[in-house]
Amino acid sequence: MDKKKKLKHTVNKVKEQSSMERKNQNDKSKSIHDILPLDLIHIILLRVSIRHLARLNNACLSMENDTMADLAYLDDNNASQKEVCPPFQNKARSGFVVLGSCRGFILLHRDPHFLVVWNPLTGSSKRISYSHIVHRSKPPLYGRIAYRSYLHGFGYDASQDDYLLLVAWSDCKGHYHLDCFSLRTNSWINLDAAFPKLLGFRYWHSGGLFFNGAVHWVPFDLEDYRDAIVIFDLKEKTFSTISAPEQLSGSSPSVALLGGCLALSSPNDDCRNTDIWVMKEYKVHSSWTLYQIPCEDFKPLCLSSNRDTIGRGYTSCGKTGYFIYNVRGDLLKHFKDLCCQLPRREPIIVYTESLLPLPGDIKDKDNKKKMKKEIHMPSSSP
């Protein structure tokens, strides 16, 4: 091979490698719904064994920093961790905050006034602006982070097969409002819902917990608000409340879902234990049941396959990170290998991985198929 042919061969090889690298990069940025049509995904899933689909895990998600999310998979003696990059990154200003989860989708807040619905497994996502609310709402006090001036909720209305995003806010006159975004209709509506008596949204955890067809919020301090849990039913579009156990004290309570039951947790007055109250029967006050964990600041997240409590916190012995305790308060496992910087006040949520597409994705694909069919449909003879 002479020099010219050799040079041409080398150039073509470099171009081929560069083309392959660009293709791989493009493929990485695409979700499964961009690569495969929805009807083909359904056919594939129907042929997959249920035991393989059951391997979709529960994961604990929190923001490691402003631009990177941390996923921890925990169960009994097994643990793994990975970093994932949320969509719609803005190099100048990202500021993601985790607000909730529902059926495999995560709700994020992104500065300055955007909500992002994201499926970390498939990569599908949608960005929703609520700037029209920000312009009418009362500005945050003392330069507080803007998202804390609102209550956010995210849930699924089974009666309409629709995912709903909630933003509760107050105007300059102190009047409360509730706006709802439908992912199926891709539109905002204002709900005329009667609010329970509140102290102001800055005294509440901004993100709500979706459970039993409703979104649940808790205040930062139980002494200021004894009707500790505020509930919004997504089907009936009504508010209600649940009172906390009389014995539950302390500040910064957290709400969790443990084994299909609502739970409240808060550091004990002795500052060496965490009280976890589990509501065995939903909305039945007498069913609150106490469990104590010998961990100074323990946030229960979920139950393991053995029905032991998985959570994150730190102990008086200096141990930090993720732990598993049984109902007697015995430490069963400390996941030492997982990176967990504590104390961390950023919200952490539990979600179950899902291959479900967003309703908007289905609607868009159906419209495209309809348009394509109409284009190729032969015209009728006169």
Automatic annotation (TrEMBL):
Gene, per the UniProt record: LOC107486476
Coiled-coil zones: none
Compositional bias segments (type: Basic and acidic residues): 13-28
SUPFAM superfamilies per record: Galactose oxidase, central domain (SSF50965)
Alphabetical list of Pfam families matching this protein: FBA_1
Record region (Disordered): 1-28, 362-382
Top-level lineage group: Eukaryota
Record-annotated F-box associated beta-propeller type domain positions: 99-301
Skewed-composition ranges (Basic residues): 1-12
Protein name (record): F-box/kelch-repeat protein At3g06240-like isoform X2
